[in-house]
Design goal:
Layout lengths: L1 H35 L16 E6 L10 H18 L3 E7 L1 H9 L4 E5 L8 H16 L5 E9 L5 E9 L10 H10 L8 H77 L1
Parallel strand pairs: 1-2, 1-4, 2-3
Antiparallel strand pairs: 4-5
Length: about 270
């Protein structure tokens, strides 16, 4: 299992590295269109004054044997729930992964949807389904905020639990840096067809899907790293246990042989006496 997890980890890392240029280009594209728009009022950017209901989306795995990978995500998600409830907000859940779903069902939580069966190798279609459901709940007013909780991949030994605000989409992505502004000035003005507002309305859902997909890839890589480490530790512990038990067995066998020799010697002395 350690070797299989290591092979899957390499593939997951390659997918993350391939995803980063796309995500960065998407952000630059949205920023460029946002600068050309005089006023941006879109549902996914709506910052609501009163946050009454929050949707928490923990990204867990479909299988165990991965150390604390699933437990630490669930623990952080429940901590987020306690904090929100203390602030007087209602909490809803969107379960991603069988481990998270089983925990939420066991605790009798309100689940607005569940997505399972793909966490070890997520596809873009899975990210689309999750982002579509979250956007649907947010746009309909059922929730005022969406929080994503997942493991960010650092290394095979380290996974950091990340708490990310997914919706509403931060308006910071519409801002531009000085370097980007200089590049735009050198390129000149653009003529947009259709209007920038309409283009932005189409791009924002794709940006949301990109954020979810990136989190799924991070979680998948983290799961394989955690499983590889857990299986290595399990093999090491099993080897140490085998050595310990073998030593105990040899000592017991030696003691038994010694006892038999003593009995034979004692019997022989009794016969010659």
């Amino acid at each position: 299992m350690e070797l299989v997890a290591a092979a899957k980890l390499r593939r997951a890392q390659a997918r993350i590295e391939a995803m980063r240029p796309y995500a960065e280009t998407m952000r630059e594209l949205i920023a460029g269109v946002g600068r050309a728009s005089s006023s941006v009022r879109l549902p996914l950017l709506e910052q609501r004054e009163q946050i009454e209901s929050v949707l928490v989306v923990p990204l867990t795995g479909d299988r165990g044997l991965a150390g604390a990978f699933n437990a630490q995500v669930i623990r952080r998600a429940l901590a987020v729930e306690r904090r929100l409830v203390a602030e007087g907000k209602s909490v809803h859940w969107l379960a991603v992964g069988k481990k998270g779903r089983s925990t939420l069902v066991f605790r009798k939580k309100t689940i607005a949807g569940e997505f399972v069966g793909f966490t070890d190798r997520p596809g873009y279609a899975d990210a689309q389904a999750i982002s579509h459901r979250t956007a649907e709940l947010f746009s309909a007013g059922d929730v005022d905020r969406v929080v994503l909780v997942y493991n960010t991949f650092v290394s095979a030994l380290t996974q950091d639990v990340t708490e990310q605000d997914l919706l509403p989409i931060s308006t910071d992505i519409l801002e531009t840096s000085e370097d980007e502004a200089k590049q735009d000035a050198m390129r000149g003005d653009f003529i947009f067809e259709p209007e920038p507002e309409e283009i932005l309305a189409r791009l924002l859902p794709v940006y949301l899907e990109t954020q979810v997909y990136r989190a799924l890839l991070e979680s998948a890589a983290s799961e394989q790293g955690a499983r590889m480490t857990a299986m290595r530790n399990a093999s090491k512990n099993a080897g140490e246990l085998i050595d310990t038990l073998t030593l105990q067995m040899n000592r017991a066998r030696q003691a038994e042989i010694t006892q038999e020799i003593l009995e034979v010697v004692g019997g022989a002395e009794a016969l010659t006496a």
